[in-house]
Amino acid sequence: RTHKITLVPGDGIGPEVSAVMVAAVEAAGKKFGAAFEWHSFEAGADAHAKNGVLIPEELYKSIETNKVAIKGPTATPIGGGFSSINVAMRKKFDLYANVRPVKSLPGLETKYPGIDLVIFRENTEDLYAGLEVMVNPDIAQSLKIITRKGSTRIAEAAFEYAKNNGRKKVHSIHKANIMKMSDGLFIKCTKEVAEKNTEIAYFEHIVDNACMQLVMNPYQYDVILTENLYGDILSDLCSGLIGGLGLVPGANIGKDCAIFEAVHGSAPDIAGQDKANPTALLQSAVMMLHYLGENEAGTALQSAIEKVYAEGKTLTGDVGGNAGTKAFGEAVLAAL
Ligand code: NAI
Ligand code: MG
After folding, report:
1. Shortest-distance atom of ligand 1 to CA 276
2. Which ligand is nearest to the CA of 274?
3. Distance between CA 317 and CA 309 in Å, rounded?
4. Which of 8, 239, 264 to mutate to test the pocket of ligand 1 (most atoms within 8 A of CB)?
5. Which residues form the Isopropylmalate dehydrogenase-like domain (predicted)?
6. Which of 79, 98, 100, 112 has the smallest count of CB within 10 Å of its CB?
């Protein structure tokens, strides 16, 4: 079997971590009789600077055909400039569930050992949609739209996942005390879904309190269900619990299409220096392998990553080691 996969290496550290990921997926697949055809596209800030095109039309077509893509981070300018290609692609393919498992790796010493939670972030609406206007040079306006459809389907995805993966609790995270209508609708919908899934315990936490709770006692959380912007922020917070952004993978999932990508960005401070940790993208690839039904390859790749961490000899600088991106990739291949 050959899987056709759309690949966006991306900006900054993207090409470095993507190279490691492709080699590892190839090796894991080979062990179990799966092959991969990579359809690679330049998109993002570097592509924009080079060709004046942010997202080539062929990239859209490729994802439409292949239905599965994996991407490195793409940089988005702060303030002005072009809008995020991530937001554009999530909207274009209606990838409404952003799923981010936050799980401690064996052997890594962190403040919180044994973390195991999953974030379900609504991925198409909220302030993150970037519906903004300058009313006049001194007044800016951002539109926050929350819908019953968007809130209900992310809640259903979270509860479905909880039931199928032995999870016990879902926390709906919101700020409905202040945004009574928008966040109010969100928790109304998540509560309705909870009432249809009473085997899973349901809680609601206000987002500022949730930040404190996550730092004081993260173990109380199992599945975190939340809106787009809170999910973005809480994801980075949660990555800090287990050792940083170099580790946490993600999947943008729609009805019949998925784009896998790490939580982290293009890390311009370490780009091109063989310093980036490819673990987050590797674990995103593990999620992709399972999505493709290549469960053996996915499990083998995950075990190989964990073996390298358990041994602790070939780790990147962000998690206290002194190996480079490439050396870490080689260690994963050796473990495979
Ligand atoms: P960032 O996630 O790129 O970096 C934050 C910090 O984490 C930096 O110190 C960086 O060196 C470190 N870091 C991130 N990934 C790492 C890895 N794999 N290994 C080791 N260290 C790692 O966030 P920042 O600097 O706020 O954003 C940079 C650019 O990335 C911006 O243009 C932003 O728009 C973009 N971005 C893109 C995302 C995507 O394409 N999915 C997601 C988040 C940000
Ligand atoms: Mg983010």
Report:
1. 19
2. 1
3. 13
4. 264
5. 4-332
6. 79
ipTM above 0.90, yes or no: yes
Are the beta carbons of 4 and 66 closer than 8 angstroms?
yes
Ligand 1 close to Cβ of residue 21 (< 6 A): no
Whether the CA torsion 32, 30, 335, 164 is positive or negative: it is negative
**Residue among 233, 245, 305 to mutate when testing ligand 1 (max atoms within 8 A of CB):** 245
Q: What single letter denotes the amino acid at residue 128?
A: Y
Is 213 strand, coil or helix?
Answer: helix
Cβ(294)–Cβ(260) under 8 Å? no
Tell me the pLDDT band of 61, cut-offs 50, 70 and 90.
Answer: very high
CATH architecture of the domain with residue range 1-103+248-336: 3-Layer(aba) Sandwich (3.40)
Any atom of ligand 1 within 6 Å of the Cβ of 265: yes
Distance of CA 102 from the midpoint of ligand 1 (Å): 17
Nearest CA to ligand 1 atom 32: 75
**Rounded-to-integer distance, Cα 169 and Cα 158, Å:** 10
Q: Which fold has domain 111-242?
A: Isopropylmalate Dehydrogenase (3.40.718)
- What pLDDT shows up at residue 273? 98
d(CA 123, CA 41): 23
pTM > 0.80: yes
Taking alpha carbons only, the member of 128, 54, 62, 57 closest to residue 91 is: 128
- Give dist(CA 128, CA 227) in Å, integer: 9
Quote the tokens at residue 286.
């593990």
| Residue 254: strand, helix, or coil | coil
How do residues 11-47 score in pLDDT, each as one tens digit? 999 999 999 999 999 999 999 999 999 999 999 999 8
71 lines ligand 1 (CB under 6 A): no
The number of the ligand 1 atom at minimal distance from the alpha carbon of 84 is 34
Domain boundaries defined on the chain: 1-103+248-336, 111-242
Averaged pLDDT for residues 114-134: 96
Lowest mean per-residue pLDDT among 1-10, 71-80, 198-207, 314-323:
71-80
267: helix, coil or strand? coil
